[in-house]
Amino acid sequence: MSEDPHSLSASLSELPQSCSPVTGTGPILPRALTPQLVMPSLTVPQRRPFSETGRSLGKLKVLVTGRRGIGKTSLILAIAQLSAHIVHMDTIVAAPKNMANDVYASTRPKPWWRTDPDRDLPRRRRSSTLDGVLDRNICFVDCPVYGDDIQGSSPAVDYVESRLAHLANKLMDDPDLCALLSGGAEPNVDVVLYLLPPSGPTSDDIRCMRDLQDATNVVPLLARADELSTEERLLAKKQTLRDLDAAGLDCFFFAAPGEDRDHSRIHAISSATQVDPDVIDASILMSSEYLPPFVATDLGNLVKDLLSVEGSTWLRHSAACKAIKWMRQQRHQGGLLPSALACTRRSSLFGLAQSIIFQVFTD
Fold it and tell me: Which fold has domain 52-111+129-274+293-333?
């Protein structure tokens, strides 16, 4: 038998002669010449158990942006690893240049009454579908902030505004629209995690952050904090906050109003890993399931604030208020922005094509 006690595979020579398919088919071969067919044993990693907080989290769309090579994809993976509430994340596939890449994750199962196609038999199917289908309620968007032309339109800004363009056609009062957006019923971006270098924001960063903050929440982050000492991180935070305040940016901070938490208004994060001195067992270090710990930064606090019931609800509500304000500005200006207008036109053409196809098949 194989070395794994749970394996059910065996070589042909190790089976009893009454069960071996080679018995009686020819001369008995020496053991050294007998085919040794051993099926490998695979250990399937178990999915994380659902947490109470994860089950209570609603839908949340997080756009991660910043200059090329600053660690956007690494941050998304680090958030999924650190958060105990994320039980699954889809594979990240490389997107075309200057294009946004949506990556879905899940913190909760889809309710059984949403997975049951036969609404007349809910009780019979409820037990078989409970917790069996994941609800991909978290969406991470990996998007560059600059295109080939830095002075041109920003892919991140275009993405955020295009998700709000179709709201202009909804004939709803502001309170109803706010309730719709706060509930996560629309694909608008709830928060932008804007990665900045330790040197602080440039004039182009300020311009893009100003455009983004008009449509959604913007959370500034200092990337590559592992390259700085504790004193350097503190100085970088203070200098970045002074730059943001001097530019008049209205960034989103998880600190409640009135709290004296200037050092917590901005997170210095890193997705770099380090060697765990407490783990010296080679079998653990070589295991495919072993994940080395991250360098100690503010990343844990960011994940805790971001994927909490209060934090995610706060982000959705704040993003809804900004979306309504953005729509008012567009109405006051007498039209939509070019990127939003293009998205609306594509949606209208798609709807027109659907109606034409429907008429052809029904006539």
Answer: Rossmann fold (3.40.50)
Check if the beta carbon of residue 230 is closer than 8 Å to that of residue 337.
no
**Residue extents of the structural domains in the chain:** 52-111+129-274+293-333
The helix-helix angle for 309-333 and 299-306 (nearest 10°) equals 70
Say whether pTM exceeds 0.85. no
- List the chain residues with pLDDT less than 50: 1-26, 42-44, 121, 124-129, 283-286, 337-363
Q: What is the pLDDT of residues 260-298, one digit of tens each?
A: 555 567 899 999 887 666 655 554 444 555 577 888 899
Alpha helix locations (H) across 307-337? 309-333
Cβ atoms 293, 78 nearer than 8 A: no
Rounded CA separation 120/318 (Å): 39
Give the Cα separation of 267 and 5 in Å (integer).
47
Two structure tokens written together for 152: 């041109």
DSSP secondary structure letters along 141-162: EE--S--SSTTS--HHHHHHHH
Residue 88: how many CA atoms within 13 Å on its side-chain side?
Answer: 15
Percent over 70 (pLDDT), the chain: 66
Closest CA to 61 of 167, 157, 186: 186
**Residue 346 neighbours by CB distance under 10 Å:** 13
Assess contact for 164 and 340: CB atoms under 8 A: yes
**β-pair partners for 101:** 142
Residue carrying structure tokens 């027109």: 352
